[in-house]
Amino acid sequence: MKIVLKAKKEAPAPPKAEAKAKPLKAKKALLKGIHSHKKRRSMSPTFQRPKTLQLQRQPNYPQKSTPRRNKLDHCAIIKCPLPTESAMKKTEDSNTLVFTVDVKASKHQIKQAVKKLYDIDVAKVNTLTRPDGEKACSTGS
Hints:
Layout: H1 15-32, H2 74-77, E1 78-81, H3 85-94, E2 96-101, H4 107-118, E3 124-129, E4 135-140
Antiparallel strand pairs: 1-2, 2-4, 3-4
């Protein structure tokens, strides 16, 4: 007597379940990522050192004990008023002050220094470097 076992047939999945499974699979692949990238082998004869983990420095003590002092403060920027005849004429005629200033000072720094030291509003700053190497500026208030 021969016994033949029937294999159980699985019920085919309904089409709606398949339709839902496809976007879920795509979403999962998007979130997790697909790890199918193969590493390219270098064909160059020179050895390329692999990049390793670079940790951020955690020093035991600061490199500088104190912060750097600002050498261009308001008093150091403006040296003195310029006592020439043409400077005095500018002061009288066009309400303009003329100073010798530090060579490294910018117009913005000069404007702030004049405002702080003399309590006046500065409209415009004109600067020039003189032939002797000094820097002169005229401020219109």
